[in-house]
């Protein structure tokens, strides 16, 4: 059994990782082993699990952005191309590709081999420096389906993108 680095208490093993994400809703990673401190709630999560969380976040994000689109005919209305983003931000394509803040803080989706940026997200990014906002209704984000008093409190928005 693991010991908590924060408070020294024994950590309890868990086998389903659940994260309540403010942008995409519930991220569930089944059949993984991680540990939670009974006293302070500290978690010990492997790099492999973090990678799975990131992959599931990206999958859910793409799914939610696709649903938001509704029909492919609405793509030019709701999304902008890389060329439009270059004009809007006033920086080069290379700068966009390398900029962590742009890649992580503007919602985008790849369709037919081309990356499209959600216009609403771009506008929010220009105003605040962060174009992310909840893509799920907090009341209907399927939280009850996975209600678990042992659910994770991990937040991917501090250092991930």
Question: Please, could you describe this protein's structure?
Answer:
The protein is α+β, with helices and mostly antiparallel strands. The protein is built from six helices and eight strands. Mean pLDDT is 85; it is low at 142-161. The protein folds into two domains: 1-68, Ubiquitin-like (UB roll) (Roll); 70-135, Arc Repressor Mutant, subunit A, CATH 1.10.10. The strands form three sheets. The chain has a three-stranded antiparallel sheet, with no helix packed on it. The longest helix is centred in the middle third of the chain and has 23 residues, at 47-69.
Essential attributes:
161 residues, alpha+beta, Ubiquitin-like (UB roll), Arc Repressor Mutant, subunit A, 2 domains, three-stranded antiparallel β-sheet, 8 strands, 35% helix, 20% strand, elongated, disordered C terminus
Compact summary:
With 161 residues, the chain is α+β, with helices and mostly antiparallel strands. It contains 6 helices and 8 strands; from the N terminus they run βββββααβαααββα.
Detail the topology: elements first, then pairings.
Elements: E1 11-14, E2 17-21, E3 25-29, E4 34-37, E5 43-44, H1 47-69, H2 75-78, E6 79-81, H3 82-89, H4 93-98, H5 100-105, E7 108-111, E8 114-118, H6 119-128
Antiparallel strand pairs: 1-4, 2-3, 4-5, 6-8, 7-8
- The overall number of domains is 2
- The rounded Rg comes to 18 Å
**CATH first level of the largest domain:** Alpha Beta
Question: Which oligomeric form is depicted?
Answer: single chain
Largest beta sheet, briefly? Answer: 3 strands, antiparallel
CATH-level-2 architecture of the largest domain: Roll
**What is the CATH topology descriptor of the largest domain?**
Ubiquitin-like (UB roll)
Average pLDDT reading: 85
Order of helix and strand elements from N to C terminus: EEEEEHHEHHHEEH
